[in-house]
């Protein structure tokens, strides 16, 4: 059967750009393409250093864990954090390697939805649309995560320095909108500030990690090994079941290493994309997994008694203050972590706007023509970027009315992203087992590919099973975990769109191999 492609220029069927000299790259063996081509609209200018730092900063594993580990203290405690960091780090690596292999075959902005359609054994366009909705929804809501974390850090610092300050929900909402406006504005001049931002973020990511590790080891009170390896808490959450509490505590670690696909959505702007994007994914996930394990272990050994930090909104702030005895040191170190989170938000806005743009370009969204627009001077998907900014603003305003509703919406991120990783890995595994051999790119896992894919699928299923569970019992409207129902709503929206319109208009690049 001849191969058919409707995609609007890819690196498999047109040109893989080199350093600007028009360097040609042959498609993988067995892969040919026919069909129409359209102007991409985006230029290739991102070099290897920038793309590596881009992926490393978005994951920001130890920073994410540092400002959210209080949730794992309630469910699971130290033992869940230590062993969970090992499982999450290894699981993230096998998932990342599996996706990197797919990226080497077909490096595309659409990533998961493109791969699902290309390798689905049946109904490829349907799987492409469904995956596109899941992935796009996950990343759109994920854009509100860093602003909420930054708002929590800022209000915690305000309380730390002024005990009389009592934060209000509208304070948090305004802070979220304020910190969102800055990276939104910088994305309008993305190319001019990219190298500086990525270099700054990479240096802070590694340098600050070393500084905090040294401070904790030198100044912090050392805990007994039994506290780290054997202390499992479950009474605080109301579950009264060690196994369930351990599983729920694991989610704080898995959240910290989720998002390796972010760099994929920049594929149309990366030079030598078929080698550099997979390489950056592998570096990002391995480096961040190792840093998460090391940071979690050192933190457990030197954070002091649980009761000193368990009920604080930002435990790391008090851990640093108790270790150093210096308010200035605590303020500076937390502020530097906030800068890294800010740079991650800058990258997320860039990545998600490209994902929305390319999905709209394939008619996967309502009003696709509007969101597929690329500004001729800025060379970026301006309307898609405006959509992301509008979503974050609306979610921030929702926080004023209900913090529960806000948390419910952004909790979709982790669940939907893990589901979006599952299907392309499953489909490529079926292809490996049934044949014909996939058209591998420069990165190929070889003999270990099938075991890695199988473990990745098992890990994803295990993690996803815990995500709809409520963190606390008894369940109330305020602590209910709405991730499952909201994910179901996204799937229903995708199905409705498919049957009402997209089955006729969705221009998914379905590729069939000879």
Automatic annotation (TrEMBL):
Record keywords, A-Z: Membrane, Transmembrane, Transmembrane helix, Transport
Protein name per Swiss-Prot or TrEMBL: Amino acid transporter
Keyword Cytoplasm found: no
Cross-referenced Pfam families: AA_permease_2 (PF13520)
Compartment(s) where it occurs, according to its Swiss-Prot or TrEMBL record: Membrane
Source species: Ophiobolus disseminans
UniProt-listed InterPro entries: AA/rel_permease1
Topology in the lipid bilayer: Multi-pass membrane protein
Membrane-crossing residue ranges in chain numbering: 45-62, 82-105, 126-150, 170-190, 202-223, 243-260, 281-303, 332-359, 380-402, 408-430, 442-462, 482-500
Main location: membrane
Lineage summary: Eukaryota, Fungi, Dikarya, Ascomycota, Pezizomycotina
């Amino acid at each position: 059967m001849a191969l058919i492609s409707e995609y609007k220029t890819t690196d498999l069927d047109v040109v893989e750009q080199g350093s600007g000299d028009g360097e040609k790259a042959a498609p993988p063996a067995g892969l040919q393409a026919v069909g129409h081509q359209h102007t991409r609209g985006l230029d290739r200018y991102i070099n290897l250093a920038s793309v590596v730092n881009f992926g490393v900063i978005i994951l920001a594993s130890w920073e994410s864990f540092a400002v959210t580990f209080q949730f794992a203290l309630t469910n699971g405690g130290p033992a869940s954090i230590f062993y969970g960091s090992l499982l999450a780090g290894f699981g993230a690596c096998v998932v990342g390697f599996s996706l990197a292999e797919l990226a080497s075959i077909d490096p595309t902005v659409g990533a998961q939805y493109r791969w699902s359609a290309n390798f689905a054994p049946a109904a490829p366009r349907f799987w492409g649309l469904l995956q596109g909705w899941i992935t796009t929804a996950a990343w759109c809501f994920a854009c509100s995560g860093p602003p909420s974390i930054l708002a929590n850090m800022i209000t915690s610092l305000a309380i730390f320095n002024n005990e009389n300050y009592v934060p209000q929900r509208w304070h948090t909402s305004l802070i979220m909108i304020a910190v969102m406006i800055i990276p939104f504005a910088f994305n309008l001049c993305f190319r001019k500030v990219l190298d500086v931002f990525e270099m700054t973020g990479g240096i802070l990511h590694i340098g600050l990690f070393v500084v905090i590790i040294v401070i904790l080891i030198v100044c912090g009170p050392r805990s007994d090994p039994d506290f780290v390896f054997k202390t499992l808490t479950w009474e605080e959450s109301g579950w009264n079941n060690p196994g369930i509490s351990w599983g729920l505590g694991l989610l704080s670690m898995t959240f910290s290493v989720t998002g390796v696909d972010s760099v994929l959505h920049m594929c149309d702007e990366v030079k030598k994309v078929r080698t550099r994007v997979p390489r950056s994914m592998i570096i990002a996930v391995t480096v961040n997994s190792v840093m998460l394990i090391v940071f979690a272990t050192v933190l457990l050994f030197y954070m002091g008694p649980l009761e000193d930090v368990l009920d604080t909104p930002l435990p790391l702030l008090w851990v640093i203050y108790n270790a150093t005895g210096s308010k200035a040191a605590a303020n500076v170190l937390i502020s530097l972590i906030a800068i890294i989170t800010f740079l991650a938000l800058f990258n997320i806005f860039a990545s998600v706007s490209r994902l929305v743009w390319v999905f709209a370009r394939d008619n996967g969204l309502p009003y696709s023509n509007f969101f597929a627009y690329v500004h001729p001077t800025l060379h970026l998907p301006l309307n898609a970027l405006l959509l992301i900014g509008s979503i974050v603003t609306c979610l921030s305003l929702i926080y004023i009315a209900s913090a529960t509703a806000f948390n419910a919406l952004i909790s979709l991120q982790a669940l939907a992203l893990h589901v979006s990783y599952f299907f392309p890995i499953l489909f490529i595994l079926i292809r490996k087992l049934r044949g014909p051999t996939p058209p591998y790119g420069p990165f190929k896992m070889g003999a270990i590919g099938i075991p890695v894919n199988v473990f990745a699928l098992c890990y994803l299923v295990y993690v996803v099973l815990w995500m709809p569970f409520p963190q606390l019992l008894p369940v109330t409207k305020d602590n209910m975990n709405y991730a499952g129902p909201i994910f179901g709503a996204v799937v229903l929206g995708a199905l409705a769109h498919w049957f009402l319109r997209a089955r006729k208009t969705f221009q998914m690049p379905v590729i069939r191999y000879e």
